[in-house]
């Protein structure tokens, strides 16, 4: 069993190493304030799960739910399940560490929904200090 765990750990490390941001992507983050990974994509089934979770959030919050259709500024008090994306994808944290350093803490999550044709524009902003 130890061999299987070791093999799995090695495979996960290799996968994370493959997904890491390139030097060009890190430079883009420092220049432009954002980056889109050339390699990482959430699986389609996980995207559908996020869409369904968001739809439930909008539906279960009555009148205030309409405000959640485009933007939820403080997501965790309403649905901690969104943390699963971070929990299930350590490569996301590894990529964040590439651009802001090793000391990372998840203290809030926001949700920007940008449905085609109806999504609101999000002005330039700063997410953290």
Rg, rounded, reads 17 Å
Q: Termini distance?
A: 44 Å
Give the DSSP E fraction (strand runs of 2 or more residues): under 5%
Task: Compute the number of structural domains.
Answer: 1
Main sheet characteristics: 2 strands, antiparallel
Molecular shape: globular
Alpha-beta classification: mainly alpha
> Can you list the strand order of the major beta sheet?
1-2
Q: What's the overall average pLDDT, rounded?
A: 81
Q: Outline the low-pLDDT stretches.
A: none
Helix share bin: 40-55%
What order do the SSEs take from the amino end to the carboxyl end, as H and E?
HHHHEHHE
Number of helical regions: 6
| Total number of strands | 2
Indicate the topology.
Elements: H1 2-19, H2 23-32, H3 44-60, H4 62-67, E1 71-72, H5 84-88, H6 90-100, E2 111-112
Antiparallel strand pairs: 1-2
Helix pairs in contact: 1-6
Structure description:
With 129 residues, the protein is mostly helical. It has one domain. The protein is 52% helix and 3% strand. The chain has helices at 2-19, 23-32, 44-60, 62-67, 84-88, 90-100; strands at residues 71-72, 111-112. The protein has a two-stranded antiparallel ribbon with strand order 1-2. Helix 1 packs across helix 6 (90-100). The N and C termini lie far apart (44 Å).
Concise synopsis of the structure shown:
By secondary structure, this protein is mainly alpha-helical. Helices cover 52% and strands 3% of the residues.
